[in-house]
Amino acid sequence: MSITRICCIGAGYVGGPTMAVIAKKCPHIKVTVVDLNEQRIAAWNDPDVNNIPVYEPGLSEVVAEARGRNLFFSTDVEAAIDEAQMIFISVNTPTKTYGAGKGQAADLKWIELCARQIARVAKDDKIIVEKSTLPVRTASAIRDIITHTGSGVHFQILSNPEFLAEGTAMEDLDAPDRVLIGGDSTPEGQVAVKALVEVYANWIPQERILTTNVWSSELSKLTANAFLAQRVSSINSLTELCEKTEADISEVARAIGTDSRIGPKFLKASVGFGGSCFQKDILNLVYIARSYGLQETADYWEQVIIMNDHQKKRFANQMIKNLYNTVNGKKIAFLGWAFKKDTNDTRESAAIYVADHLLYEQADISVYDPKVPERQVYADLDYLVSRSPEENKKGVKVVEDPYEACKDAHAIAVLTEWEEFKNYDWQRIYDSMLKPAKIFDGRNLLDAEKLRAIGFQVRSIGSTL
Ligand code: NAD
Ligand code: UDX
Question: Is 406 one of the catalytic residues?
């Protein structure tokens, strides 16, 4: 079976870039990305590719090349389902905010809606691909929903989790460490697996395409994110001890990272991990383990989140303590609001929680981020419902110029590791600030020695220098 028509439900941070790359690498396949969100689709179709809704280095160029040729963005979900041989489900699966499993389980309502819609619309056999990150055994629920339609249509369900990281999505999609495809061991299941393998084989070496059963594939995605987040929490868990003992976390990370069994990646101490995946997926893993009565497994992974929450709170508290135990009425500049560099995504960004904590203490915050617009900063704060939107607007200003953000500030908090921060005129910033001018580098990004030579007081994470 050779695939020539693909549809992807969900035009977000995964659906958009992933399908753009499939369209680029497979010009013989028509790829249609659909979404209920009309504004989002309109932005993907904006004639000026700089206005597409997801910022990723290299993405706009690929969209410019493939859009209108074999890449299409549409709100007509049913037409796209009808036409496709293979349907990727790439909708959001956030943590539940209500009912059983509130605050831990994944909310699968959008997945179920997709399954029901596919079952209703499909007139011929389809391969359904789980691209969203899902709890292990979700494919069995999807199968249950779609096989009782009585339409005679046959469906195969594959799990094909996405491992891209935001900010490097295009590189990750272009040359992934591996692509994982889980399918049924039945002959029909294996035909479906082969069809998806052939799509990826257009640009990915066969040895990097791993095939497993569906359940291993679903669980591997949660496990990969849990392991990655655990590394960040592990290194962060030692930052406080470094600060107390004059050890330096960057030196410790370098020392342990040269052990080939440990490896150097993902050992950067920080104000805490953010992003839409790590917390959500670990909470989900914890919930699943508890639902099977596996208390020790659940407790083990929950600690990764507890440590991350502690790190964010600790950073904010350290700022307050260092600012003579009061930030009331003091201007604090935030450099960065996105959860990491090279993305406009702010979901679960540590900056949101640090801001919330400082706002309790009635600080005046001034935010600059090169890619995050003002409305998003307020939307993030309003979502916390800690205070009214009017109060958030009063406490937080969003500016488009970093020098304006820092002018007359008592302190600067570096919350995202944007490269451009390194190249600022730091003497000019120092001159414009209230003294003593303080920098709390939540990313260990800046050259602390150079800044101290100018006159700044600098606090990095995990070091007493
Ligand atoms: P997103 O919120 O950016 O995009 C999801 C889109 O799906 C939204 O635009 C929403 O309007 C649309 N949608 C929801 N229900 C729909 C429906 N019934 N019909 C049509 N459209 C619908 O989410 P995302 O970041 O792209 O993540 C999608 C999935 O991929 C999640 O399960 C996530 O865990 C997983 N994932 C995300 C990343 C990442 O870096 N963001 C990486 C790997 C995996
Ligand atoms: C993550 C996974 O890496 C990716 O494989 C998965 O598909 C989606 O979730 P993402 O959240 O986009 O990707 O970015 P990632 O690079 O993993 O960073 C997550 C958070 O951890 C960021 O806030 C980042 O700043 C932080 N981090 C990462 C650290 O604090 N230190 C590190 O050493 C690495």
Answer: no
